[in-house]
Amino acid sequence: MSTMNKMARVCLAAPGRESSMKTVSLHLCLTGSYLHDICELVCKAIGNGRVKSVELALPTKKADLDCGNMVAKNLVCFFYAFPNLLQCTTRLVLHNARFNELEMCHLLNSCEQLQHLELNNCDTGRLSTLKINMPNSKISYLRLESCCFEKVELSCLPKLAILYCESWFSLNAPLSFGCVPCLEELSLVCSAARNQYGLNLSELLHGTVEIKALTLDFHGEKVKNSYACYYSFCYHVASAGVGNRTRTC
User: InterPro entries in the record, alphabetically (predicted)?
Assistant: First the structure.
């Protein structure tokens, strides 16, 4: 770990350098002994203008509920310790954390420059509802994978262009849309369980106006549209209407 710290110091704290790095990408273990030292170096580089943005991935092992709560608390403590890091983060990837609603709200609102967000097995309680109403958000890419939300309500994400949702556990449609005027690409990938209801596409897409690419993959399971057919396919739609599609009824 001392070698990693030395390399970070060379890159971020070398004296006499006038050039600046536009972006620093960090893939760090949350419990790593080197974490504090490296993040301090990055924050100093942000403070003196050498670093403009941060891409941050904090992978953790998938474990039980108690561990998920602990991961969330550790993440919250980490972000409180390095607020400058969070404010300059443009790409954030989190795994296996169960936040409370206030923690999730603080996390999202503190990432003022965030453009790319990935949540893998993260939630605010099993079958809870995540409401995102962020009119000043810069998020353009959102990926939700194996998250235990009953629904994610995207009330306002004005810059969102690409949304990927995979392996949800809700009984009904996992998403609802409010103000998402830039959403062009939507991917839904999930193998439907027996207790999950079919999706009504017209209801699911209500609130979207600019969808140009819609990908649906339900592993041969049920998706119900207004014509009462069941589909397992990839949809590609243009803003003027439905384009090419492959279907099995």
Answer: LRR_dom_sf
